[in-house]
Design a protein that fits this description.
Blueprint lengths: L3 E2 L2 H21 L5 E5 L5 H17 L2 E5 L7 H13 L5 E4 L9 H7 L11 H8 L8 H12 L8 E5 L6 H10 L3 E5 L6 H5 L4 E4 L17 E4 L3 E3 L2 H7 L4 H10 L2 E3 L12 E2 L7 H26 L5
Parallel strand pairs: 1-11, 2-3, 2-4, 5-6, 5-7, 7-8, 8-11
Antiparallel strand pairs: 9-10
Helix pairs in contact: 1-11, 2-11, 3-4, 6-7, 6-11
The structure holds NADPH dihydro-nicotinamide-adenine-dinucleotide phosphate.
The site of NADPH dihydro-nicotinamide-adenine-dinucleotide phosphate has 25 residues, from α11.
C-alpha cells in the first residue's frame, strides 16, 4: 500500500485564496490588517522564518512591520517595544520570534503581548480560552494540522489519535484541538512506555518530537493517517543514506546541498500509512498560513469590538 499524500502546499494555497478575499473585503471597509514581527539579533534560522512570514504578508496584501533590535537588548527594553506595538492601532498581530537571547526573560515577553494581538496563540489567556473551548487565537502549527485533516476529509470524530510530544506550542494545543473535534486522544512524551504499541492503536498519529525518522513503519497501524510535524536537518552522509535508502533523489539532494530535511517519521512510513504529510511540503506551509489567518482574525475581532464599543453596526 502507498499512502495518499496530504499536500500542505495545495491546502495552504486554498487558505490563501480564501484569506485574500477576506482581506479585500476588510480593505473595502477601510481596514488594512497589519502584522508586526520582532526579530532580535541575527540568528540565521530566525531571520529565514521571519522573512518568509513578512513575504507571506506581502503576497496577501497584509501590512507588515519589522522590528530588529540588537541581540544585546534587555528584557525591559523589549517589554517597552512590545508595549508600543500593543498600543499601535495599525498593528493587529504581534509575533516575537523565538528563541530570544539568554539575558531576555522570554516568558515575560510573551506574557506582555496583548492577548487580542497574540497571533502565535502563546499567551496564557489564549491557551486558557482554547482549553475552555472558547473562540481564541490558536497556536499556528496545531491549527494548521486541523486544517489538513479537515480539508482532506480525514474522519476525526471517534478516531483514536496519538500525539507524540507535549510542548506548549505543538503537542498540548494539538491534543486539545483533537479532543474538541471528538477524537479520543493519547498524549505521549519522552517518559511514555511502549510508545510503539500505543502508536499502533491510533487512527491518527501526530508526530511532534524533533527526533529524526524515529517513527518507523512498525509504529503505524496499516491505513492510519500520519501527520509529521517534525523538521530535522540531517548533515551526516551515512545517516542520510540510511534513512533515505529507498529515495535516491533525496540522497542526490543531500550530496548537492550537504544537508537534507527529514521529519520525525521515517520516509518508509509511506508504505504503511493510509495518508501521510510529506516533509517538506506537509505541515510546514500551514504554519505560516495560520499565522496569516490569525492576523486577519485578530483584525476582525479587535476592530469589531472597537466598532461595537462605539455603537457602530457591523
Ligand atoms: P520540543 O522539543 O519543545 O518538544 C518535544 C516533545 O517531544 C517533548 O514533549 C518531548 O517529551 C517529546 N519527545 C522527545 N523525544 C521523545 C521520544 N523519544 N519519545 C517520545 N516523546 C519524545 O519540540 P517542539 O514541540 O517545539 O517541536 C517538535 C518538532 O516539530 C521539532 O522537530 C520542530 O522542529 C517541529 N516543528 C515544526 C513546525 C512546522 O511548522 N512544521 C513548527 C514547530 C515545530 P518531554 O516533554 O518528556 O521532554
Amino acid at each position: 500500500m502507498t499512502a495518499r499524500i496530504l499536500n500542505g502546499v495545495a491546502i495552504r494555497d486554498q487558505i490563501y485564496a480564501e484569506l485574500q478575499s477576506e482581506i479585500a473585503s476588510l480593505a473595502a471597509g477601510g481596514v488594512r490588517s497589519g502584522l508586526a514581527a520582532v526579530l532580535v539579533g541575527d540568528n540565521p534560522a530566525s531571520k529565514l522564518y521571519v522573512n518568509s512570514k513578512i513575504a507571506a504578508c506581502g503576497k496577501l496584501g497584509l501590512e507588515s512591520f519589522l522590528l530588529t533590535p540588537p541581540a544585546t537588548i534587555t528584557t525591559e527594553e523589549l517589554l517597552g517595544a512590545v508595549d508600543e506595538l500593543n498600543r499601535r492601532d495599525d498593528v493587529d498581530g504581534i509575533l516575537v520570534q523565538m528563541p530570544l537571547p539568554k539575558q531576555v526573560d522570554s516568558k515575560r515577553i510573551l506574557d506582555a503581548v496583548d492577548p487580542a494581538k497574540d497571533v502565535d496563540g502563546f499567551h496564557p489567556e489564549n491557551v486558557g480560552r482554547l482549553v475552555a473551548g472558547r473562540p481564541s487565537l490558536v497556536a499556528c502549527t496545531p491549527a494548521g494540522v486541523m486544517e489538513i485533516l479537515r480539508r482532506s476529509g480525514i474522519a476525526i470524530e471517534g478516531a483514536n489519535a496519538v500525539v507524540m510530544g507535549r510542548s506548549d506550542i505543538v503537542g498540548k494545543p494539538m491534543a486539545i484541538l483533537l479532543v474538541h473535534a471528538n477524537a479520543t486522544v493519547t498524549i505521549c512524551h519522552s517518559k511514555t512506555r511502549e510508545l510503539k504499541e500505543v502508536a499502533r492503536r491510533a487512527d491518527i498519529v501526530v508526530a511532534a518530537m524533533g527526533r529524526a525518522a524515529m517513527v518507523t513503519p512498525d509504529y503505524i497501524r496499516p491505513g492510519a493517517t500520519v501527520i509529521d510535524v517534525g523538521q530535522n536537518v540531517i548533515t551526516d552522509a551515512a545517516e542520510a543514506e540510511r534513512i533515505f535508502a529507498k529515495f535516491p533523489e533525496k540522497i542526490a539532494g543531500f550530496h548537492k546541498k550537504g544537508s537534507v530535511l527529514v521529519g520525525d517519521c521515517h520516509p518508509d512510513v509511506v508504505e504503511t500509512a493510509g495518508a501521510f504529510t510529506p516533509v517538506p511540503g506537509g505541515v510546514g506551509p500551514l504554519t505560516i498560513a495560520m499565522l496569516m489567518s490569525n492576523t486577519v482574525r485578530a483584525a476582525r475581532m479587535r476592530r469589531g469590538r472597537a466598532a461595537e464599543a462605539a455603537g457602530v453596526e457591523r
